[in-house]
Amino acid sequence: MAKKLLGLKSIRESKLMSQQELAAKSGLTVTTVSRIETDKVKPSVKTIRALALALDYTPHHFKNLLDGKPSKQSISDPTDRKSIFSRIGSMFKSILRRK
């Protein structure tokens, strides 16, 4: 039996993505995404990489999430408050410099 990617569905849902959106963004079919989530197929390294990038994670971070290991961060996690406030601060600084 294929090794189950335990966190794929929850990772996808945490990004507020449907299977259809993930499939479109990763270049996979909805059937493939569903079969991976339900342990029907074992994805290739290329497929895992496509899923990781579609979910805005580095492949290394994504693999750690799937394995249940803590990892530092995604490429650009829009829900990361520190990152959001940092970007807002940078925008205000650049606006103030223009005046």
Give a short synopsis of this structure.
The protein is an all-alpha fold. It has helices at 8-14, 19-26, 30-37, 45-54, 59-66, 81-98.
Please describe the topology of this protein.
Blueprint: H1 8-14, H2 19-26, H3 30-37, H4 45-54, H5 59-66, H6 81-98
Helix pairs in contact: 2-3, 2-4, 4-5
| Count of domains | 1
Unreliable stretches: 1-5
> How many extended strands?
0
| Overall pLDDT | 78
Radius of gyration: 17 Å
CATH class: Mainly Alpha
Distance between the termini: 64 Å
CATH architecture: Orthogonal Bundle
Tell me the β content.
Answer: under 5%
Largest sheet: none
Describe this structure as you would to a colleague.
The chain has 99 residues and is mainly α. The chain has one domain (8-98): 434 Repressor (Amino-terminal Domain) (Orthogonal Bundle). It is built from six helices and no strands. It has helices at residues 8-14, 19-26, 30-37, 45-54, 59-66, 81-98. α4 crosses α5 (59-66). It is elongated. Residues 1-5 have low confidence and may be disordered.
